SCO2 protein
Amino acid sequence: GAPRLPLRQRLAVAGAVAGAAAAGWLYLRQQKERQRRSRRLQQLRQVALGQGDFQLQDTAGTPRSKADFLGRWVLLYFGFTHCPDVCPEELEKLSRAVELLERDPALPPLQPLFVTVDPERDDAAALARYLRDFHPRLLGLTGTPEQVRAAASAFRVYVSAGPRDSDGDYVVDHSVLTFLVDPDGLFRDCYGRSRTAEEVARSVRGHMDAYEPLPP
């Protein structure tokens, strides 16, 4: 029969075959991973477009939607100006968290937003007056009852106006949550009443550090 190759050559051939098989397997795996990642990015982009959108107006009467804040991190809180204690506490906490993050100039910009759940009383002027007590860049958003309902629904925020008293006054029951939205428009986190300003700032910083933008 054919002469047998010396052992060293046989090992070299076997190694080359195994190496080629491994390289081929690795290439297929990488290709599969790239396709999976591409599909995942497409899904994320679709989610980002549809997730938590809103059509509201700021205190200057300028129409605002989620698209206006793409490219920036956003901390967003739903509340109302007649709220007796919860909303002022949460807005002070939000303002403090933003101040803590602003101390590090290396961090990307962060936009704080306040969306009213009480458009009947919280027009642009009422919002502007109320927000003067908090962070100077805190932007107030209001709209028609339908627009406000749609915005709350997009963030799955529970809102229910209570009965009116003899003066026509009422309290609005609502979810007490602050939402973190990344520069692509994706929800990253939400923070309840139990979280301190320091904890919120630390969490936001962690998300900023780990953030990888969605490719176009």
About this structure: Residues 7-50 form the longest helix (44 residues). The two ends are 62 Å apart (CA to CA). The mean pLDDT is 88.
